[in-house]
Design brief:
With 272 residues, this protein is mainly beta. It is 6% helix and 36% strand. Strands 1, 5, 8, 9, 11, 12 and 14 form a seven-stranded mixed beta sheet that branches. The protein is globular and about 65 Å long. This is Ephrin type-A receptor 4-A. Keywords: Receptor, Signal.
Length: 272
């Protein structure tokens, strides 16, 4: 490939918009690369038997765009337009460890903020070909939050938004008028820098996909991981009943009801 063609390819690839799950880097998700053991696979998160990830920030080499990146999953949008030569207020990638990228927003010192972190499109149509759509997902955040006790301008929470759409938006899903607020993440922080883990359930319609927006409104936060997932009741055989894997209750309240069947050589009839 000539340098001119390569440059054109990279320029086009820069505008590729992905869809999770399935858009992660092989270096982060595969146990071997071209037949050789992949050392980065050893740091891959381990999911429980009931967890089904849809999007995990640990699956990507980079999270936000830099020159030369062929594909990154997220976008940073500065809606307040108050970046300065001294302070970059929008979401930026601060951790660059392979498959362990982190993003930070901490621009409260230069005024009120509205900085959007927008994920790639997240597909919520269940595998298997039946077309069933998830009606609830869970978003888990891990990170650090500055208590900001030196300034009343600094807030100790950030906002969550969603835009439900069945298709990838080729414009990058940056029209924030499409989004609706779904909650606020407010870790328990008193002062100083505190680590936190926080989960938030998001109800969905039947479109089969959505974009997630994380909005900084004058806080000082570093996100070390964002995980979007749903839960299942794993396949189970207990006593004489076999229960297949089933999606956990898709309402924000209540427990699932899973039908089972008798195992081989058993019966529903009671003995005398």
């Amino acid at each position: 490939m000539t340098p001119v063609v390569l440059a054109l390819f990279l320029a086009i690839a820069t505008f590729v918009h992905g869809q999770a799950p399935g858009d992660g880097s092989d270096l982060c998700t595969e146990d071997s690369i071209q037949g050789f053991p992949n050392p980065f696979f050893e740091i891959r998160p381990v999911y429980s038997a009931s967890e089904r990830p849809l999007m995990d920030s640990r699956d990507y080499l980079r999270l936000l765009q830099e020159s030369g990146d062929a594909y990154v999953p997220w976008q940073s949008l500065d809606r307040d337009n108050n970046n300065t030569n001294m302070v970059v207020t929008e979401w930026t990638q601060t951790g660059t460890a392979t498959c362990q990228g982190t993003v930070t927003a901490c621009g409260f010192s230069v005024g009120a903020q509205e900085n959007w972190l927008i994920t790639q499109h997240i597909n919520t149509v269940l595998p298997g070909g039946g077309g069933e759509r998830l009606r609830k997902v869970t978003v888990q955040f891990e990170g650090t939050l500055n208590g900001c006790d030196i300034s009343r301008q600094c807030r100790q929470s950030f906002e969550l938004y969603k835009w439900e759409t069945s298709a990838i938006d080729r414009n990058g899903a940056t029209n924030t008028n499409n989004y609706v607020r779904v909650g606020r993440v407010s870790p328990s922080v008193t002062s100083g820098v505190t680590s936190f883990v926080d989960s938030h359930n998001i109800e969905l319609g039947t479109t089969g996909g959505f974009y997630l927006g994380v909005v900084d409104l004058s806080t000082c936060v570093t996100l070390t991981r964002i995980l979007v997932l749903y839960y299942v009741c794993p396949e189970e055989t207990s006593e004489l009943i076999s229960r297949p894997e089933a999606i956990e209750s898709q309402s924000l309240e209540g427990s699932p009801s899973v039908e089972g069947e008798c195992v081989e050589n058993s019966s529903t009839e009671s003995g005398d």
